[in-house]
Amino acid sequence: MSEHPPVTSTGQRLHALDNLRALLMWLGIVLHVEAIYATQHLPNAWRDEQRTLVADVVVSSIHAFRMPAFFILGGFFAALLARSRGPDGLLRHRLLRLGLPFALFWPPLWLASGLAALFFMNRMVLHRWGLDPGVLPELPILGGPNTIHLWFLWMLLWLCVFTAALWRLPRAWFAPAEAALAWLARQPWACVALALPLLLASAAYPNAVLQPAGAFLPEWNEWLYYGSFFVFGLMLHGRQAELFARFQRHWAGYAVAGLACYLIAFAVALRQGPALLIGYSYHCIAWLWSFAAIGLALRWLSSRQAVLGYLADSAYWVYLVHYPLTILFGALLFEQPLPAAAKIALNITATTLVCLGSYALFVRHGWISQLLNGKRHPRRPRGPAREPA
Asked: Residue 48 contacts by C-beta under 8 Å, 6 or more apart in sequence?
């Protein structure tokens, strides 16, 4: 989403954040495939007859930190652009990188996702291919326009618009809140306090875990939930020297603490315990594993390697197009005599190959790459043809 790798306050490039963002985007394939084979009730109505508890664990683990970490990075990048280009530069950049791709790709992706879901539901209910809408009278993806999986782009765009507007105000107005948030981030018990607004935003949902509705006008609790991470990212850019060092030094501790919270939430859920305790533990995980992911990336993914660089370049395209593919391949695998693990592996592999193939053929060297990443990659020149002997 940015044509330049993020930089530190000293001008050093942070490829780690680009690499982390790419991996988080690619995890979307795993998340949406696993949801088809999970045993628990999830927002997607299309489900395979073969299911496994492993899919539940994978979905809940990825969901716990993927979007929170995304919004932290989104806030970080917004502050980077505002400081380097000013609020007008931030607004122009985000309208170009977020708003224009959303406007261009949302209509065909919404239609493709709806058709794929309808195919899948016809397979489930009628056991044949078809587009009979009667099988799904209440499927949200077919009930009217919504932002589907692009809700992240939509909300991030508006958070950046608000940031551009507020950035014009005197910085002294926000300095006390920034200092307080930075102080809180340095405390070993930071997640205990940071999880409270998330619990407030999620209290009315099952197990007190928020599920985005994909509405074009999100409810207040979605703004509070994801805005909390975005605001943290805004602060993080100004305090990156101390906080990045802390995340890198203590990433393992954050990861283990998050795992402990996950086990608590899992145990309480199995006993059908208090939903607020399940949700509060889950929201602690969101912060702990986000900090762990940032620290892990800073420690081990700090350079632009060939494979990670290619994944980073293709990640935005993969994020856009993967969702209907996971549904379509799930429909193709429905009622096939295979265990859930095999279907998951086949779906992830097929979706990945189509995403990478379409990126290599139609995106990397053309205008779509320019639109999404601010650059197009030149094609490698072919070597001179050998003259016949």
From this structure: 36, 37, 330, 333, 334, 340, 343
